[in-house]
Amino acid sequence: MSLFRPDVDRIAGYVPGEQPQESGWTKLNTNENPYPPSPRVAEAVQRAAGGRLNIYPDPLASQFRQAVADLYQVEPDWILPANGSDENLTILFRTFVDPGELASSPYPSYVLYETLADIQGAGYERLALNADWSWNWGLAEPVAAKSKLVLVPNPNSPSGNIWTDDELMRLLPDQGVLVVDEAYGDFRDASHGVEILQSEIGRRIVVTRTLSKSYSLAGIRCGFAIAHPDLIAGMRKVKDSYNCNTLTLAAGLAAVQDQEWMQHNTERIRSTRSRLTSELRTCGFDVVDSQANFVWATRDDGRHEEIYSQLKQRRILVRYMSFSDAVGDDEVDGLRISIGTDEEIDIFLRALSEIL
Ligand SMILES: Cc1ncc(COP(=O)(O)O)c(C=O)c1O
């Protein structure tokens, strides 16, 4: 007899990318920012750590919420802070999807969505993409229409491509919520606000953002959702009372208040992204034009897994990913390479040319 809920028994669980804890690795596998966070973050965390840690944090994270609201020019009740975007994704499932109801997301995309649906006891279907990462509307649209929750990363992972707001609107469910997961939104070439939320149908759309990537705070676990206050009010009922701790809130506030630091780093990453893309193409890879802090690279000779292993032997980590039944019955596999510093990318390219 199993003690577990059948839904938990059934699933394998989400497997995060490798996180070696010792130094000496060139780590290009989990889309972290290679640059440190704003120096204001360490000062703020030190101040907070010397303060009242015996007291619970502000359950509404008011100061952080206000700073984010100012940034996006909305009122604070449009913002729900969370312990990373992953927590907001969990809250979204618990708020909007009953067991047996349907959730959907593009495939290939962020694998966690399907795991969260499984844990919730929800149904899950893929929104079909073509081989060039465009939508297979004939298959995708009817599935989105009947879903309770549709989740779309924009830019997408692992491909790094973006979809237009008009395309996203076509995926709005008939009677459900569309989540636009903008974990990589700050790496887009043109800045992009939350205009998508301002219309009438915007009342059924939630945008999620994270400080893990563009603000270099993956270790702090901080993110936020932006949506109409009616949606945020429902999600707030579901969240843990004190879901963001005092140190996280201090770090998050300092980070969003230093836009110059974030913009400077994302600009450097965009420039390294262009260089890496053209170098990989010269070495015989097909590379999707990326608007994120990683690129998706594939080769006709299919040597992806072997190249991943050989890089790993040299203490360079990239992400080998394989998606079965991706387009039609085809398996899609390839390498997702996070954008490191220029020095890290040089180390990677030197090793790659030895391997090839
Ligand atoms: C598409 C997407 N959404 C969300 C996340 C998780 O973000 P966070 O670190 O804020 O939980 C990731 C992390 O890799 C991601 O790729």
What is this structure's SSE topology?
Blueprint: H1 6-10, E1 26-27, H2 39-49, H3 62-72, E2 79-82, H4 85-96, E3 102-107, H5 112-120, E4 123-128, H6 137-145, E5 149-153, H7 165-169, E6 177-181, E7 205-210, E8 223-226, H8 229-238, H9 246-256, H10 259-282, E9 286-287, E10 294-298, H11 304-313, E11 316-317, E12 319-327, E13 330-338, H12 342-355
Parallel strand pairs: 1-11, 3-4, 3-5, 5-6, 6-7
Antiparallel strand pairs: 2-8, 7-8, 9-10, 10-13, 12-13
Helix pairs in contact: 2-9, 3-9, 4-5, 4-8
The structure holds pyridoxal-5'-phosphate.
Description:
- It is built from twelve helices and 13 strands.
- Helices cover 37% and strands 18% of the residues.
- The protein has helices at residues 6-10, 39-49, 62-72, 85-96, 112-120, 137-145, 165-169, 229-238, 246-256, 259-282, 304-313, 342-355; strands at residues 26-27, 79-82, 102-107, 123-128, 149-153, 177-181, 205-210, 223-226, 286-287, 294-298, 316-317, 319-327, 330-338.
- The chain is α/β, with parallel strands linked by helices and 356 residues long.
- It has two domains: 19-35 and 260-355, Aspartate Aminotransferase, domain 1, CATH 3.90.1150; 39-258, Type I PLP-dependent aspartate aminotransferase-like (Major domain) (Aspartate Aminotransferase, domain 2), CATH 3.40.640.
- It has a seven-stranded mixed beta sheet with strand order 2-8-7-6-5-3-4, sandwiched between helices.
- The longest helix is centred in the last third of the chain and has 24 residues, at 259-282.
- The site of pyridoxal-5'-phosphate has 13 residues, from helix 4.
